[in-house]
Write a structure and sequence with these properties.
The complex is a heterodimer of chains A (117) and B (112). By secondary structure, chain A is mainly beta. Chain A has no helices and 11 strands. In chain A, strand 4 and strand 5 form a beta hairpin. With 112 residues, chain B is mainly beta. Chains A and B meet through strand 4, strand 5, strand 9 and strand 10 of A and strand 4, strand 5 and strand 10 of B.
Chain lengths: 117, 112
């Protein structure tokens, strides 16, 4: 199977600071990476779609200036939560779609728990 | 507007019996569907998928059924094992975008 890692696994920060989360596909090249967030006992909500070398596509209601996404290579995408506030506290999960794979080949990272104080 | 719905937040079954998890969708543009298993504070783990051109896909103890006319899919787990206890999410995707829309999840508890 394909392996996707996320770093850090959990982070606690003060309100107003920025936090960067990395998502890496370890053993395959990912044409597309996706960022989700999950609130407690709720579903995974797609935030944005990230294609290598191009700008991310954000879902309706997601502030692109607040959630900066960079997909610099076929194995790395980063999500930066800028000027974080307590309401940004959530579980952030990335997924990677394998290059040349079928349309259902989306592999998920282990997630990052962000707590903003 | 919830495009993918799992109307049962929880399900409890006895070990060895069948678990049936249900999922409904509204958007006829979805052309593939997946089931994921998730533990707290972990990412989802892919279980099984089905293309819209099929009505059944089986993988070991897991079978997914798709009823396109009813816009309904279900995951059957038989026999259920205590290790199957987790939250199960169905997801629907469109091959045009590659995006997945997730249901709310169903918490399955398999009792020994």
């Amino acid at each position: 199977g394909a392996v996707v890692s996320q770093h850090p696994s959990r982070v606690i920060c003060k309100s107003g600071t920025s936090v960067k989360i990395e998502c890496r596909s370890l053993d395959f090249q990912a044409t597309t990476m996706f960022w989700y967030r999950q609130f407690p006992k709720q579903s995974l909500m797609l935030m944005a779609t990230s294609n290598e070398g191009s700008k991310a596509t954000y879902e309706q209601g997601v502030e692109k200036d607040k959630f900066l996404i960079n997909h610099a290579s076929l194995t790395l995408s980063t999500l930066t939560v800028t000027s974080a506030h307590p309401e940004d506290s959530s579980f952030y999960i990335c997924s990677a779609s394998r290059r040349g794979g079928g349309s259902d080949t989306q592999y998920f990272g282990p997630g990052t728990r962000l707590t903003v104080l | 507007d919830q495009q993918v719905k799992q109307n049962s937040p929880s399900l409890s079954v006895q070990e060895g019996r069948i678990s049936i998890l249900n999922c409904d969708y509204t958007n006829s543009m979805f052309d593939y569907f997946l089931w994921y298993k998730k533990y707290p504070a972990e990412g989802p783990t892919f279980l099984i998928s089905i293309s819209s051109i099929k009505d059944k896909n089986e993988d070991g103890r897991f079978t997914v059924f798709l009823n396109k006319s009813a816009k309904h899919l279900s995951l059957h787990i038989v026999p259920s094992q205590p290790g199957d206890s987790a939250v199960y999410f169905c997801a629907a995707g469109s091959s045009n975008t590659g995006k997945l829309i997730f249901g709310q999840g169903t918490t399955l508890q398999v009792k020994p």
